[in-house]
Write a sequence for this structure.
C-alpha cells in the first residue's frame, strides 16, 4: 500500500467511525465496531506511514502489542455496556 | 543460536526506519498513552452513565474533522520523506510546511474546543471523564506542538536521515490520535 492509498483508507475509516457514532449506535456491538476501525487505522499508520511493513519482525511485534491493547479496550467497552 | 542467526537478528533490530533512539521514544510515548487510555476505559466501567453524559458535552464532529486534518498531515509528511530520498529539497520544504500548517489547524480546532469547555464552566474537576479528557488530549496537543517544531527543524536541515527521524515522531502523534479519538469522543 502506498502512502496515498493509506491516507485515503485512513480518511474513509475516520469518516466511517464518525458516521457510526453519529447514527446513534450504542452498546457493545457499536463500541467493538468503532474500536475495530481504530485498530485497522493504527495498523495502517504503523505499516505505511511509519514504514514497518519493510521490517516484518518489528511489524509483527507492534501488531501483537497493539492487538493486546485493542482487545483490552474492547473488553472494557463491553464490560461498561454490561454494567 | 548460530552465528548467522545472531547476525540476522541483529540486522532486523537495526533495520528499523530512522533512528533507534526515536523508536525508543515512540514506544515509550505509546505505552504512556496506552496506559492512560486503558485507565480511562477502566474508570468508564465504574460509571458508564456519568461518562456518557459527560461525553455529550464534546463535539465529535470537530474531533472527526481534526482526525482527517492529522492523517492528511501525516500523509504530507510521508510524501516529504519520499521527496527527500529523491533529493527534491524544495518539494520537501513545501510538503513539511503544509504538514506543519495542518498541525497548527489541529491545535486551533483543539483550542476552540477547550474554549467551549471553559465557557460551559467545565474543568478538570467537573467529572472523572474530564480529568482524563484534559490530561490525554492536552498531553497529545503538546506532542503536536513539539512535532510542528521538529518538522520545522528537519525542513531546515532537510537530509533523508533527519526527515526519517522527524516524520517518525509526527506519525507517532498521528497514531496516538487515531486511538484516542474513538475512545474519548465516540464510544457510548
Amino acid at each position: 500500500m502506498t502512502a496515498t492509498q493509506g491516507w485515503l483508507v485512513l480518511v474513509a475509516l475516520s469518516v466511517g467511525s464518525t458516521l457510526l457514532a453519529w447514527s446513534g449506535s450504542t452498546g457493545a456491538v457499536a463500541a467493538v465496531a468503532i474500536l475495530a476501525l481504530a485498530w485497522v487505522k493504527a495498523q495502517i499508520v504503523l505499516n505505511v506511514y511509519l514504514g514497518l511493513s519493510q521490517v516484518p519482525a518489528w511489524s509483527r511485534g507492534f501488531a501483537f502489542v497493539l492487538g493486546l491493547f485493542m482487545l483490552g479496550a474492547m473488553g472494557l467497552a463491553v464490560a461498561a455496556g454490561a454494567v | 543460536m548460530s552465528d548467522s542467526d545472531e547476525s540476522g537478528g541483529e540486522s532486523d533490530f537495526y533495520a528499523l526506519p530512522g533512528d533507534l533512539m526515536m523508536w525508543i521514544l515512540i514506544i515509550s510515548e505509546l505505552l504512556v498513552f496506552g496506559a492512560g487510555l486503558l485507565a480511562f476505559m477502566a474508570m468508564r466501567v465504574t460509571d458508564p452513565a456519568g461518562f456518557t453524559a459527560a461525553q455529550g458535552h464534546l463535539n465529535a464532529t470537530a474531533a472527526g474533522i481534526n482526525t482527517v486534518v492529522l492523517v492528511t498531515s501525516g500523509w504530507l509528511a510521508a510524501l516529504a520523506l519520499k521527496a527527500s530520498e529523491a533529493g527534491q529539497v524544495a518539494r520537501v520544504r513545501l510538503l513539511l510546511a503544509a504538514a506543519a500548517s495542518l498541525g497548527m489547524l489541529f491545535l486551533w480546532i483543539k483550542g476552540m474546543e477547550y474554549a467551549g469547555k471553559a465557557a460551559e464552566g467545565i474543568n478538570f474537576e467537573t467529572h472523572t471523564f474530564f480529568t482524563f479528557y484534559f490530561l490525554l488530549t492536552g498531553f497529545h496537543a503538546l506532542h503536536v506542538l513539539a512535532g510542528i517544531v521538529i518538522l520545522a527543524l528537519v525542513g531546515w536541515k532537510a537530509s533523508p536521515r533527519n526527515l526519517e527521524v522527524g516524520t517518525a515522531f509526527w506519525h507517532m502523534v498521528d497514531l496516538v490520535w487515531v486511538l484516542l479519538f474513538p475512545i474519548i469522543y465516540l464510544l457510548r
Summary: Confidence is low (pLDDT under 50) at residues 1-8 of chain B. Chain B has seven helices and no strands.
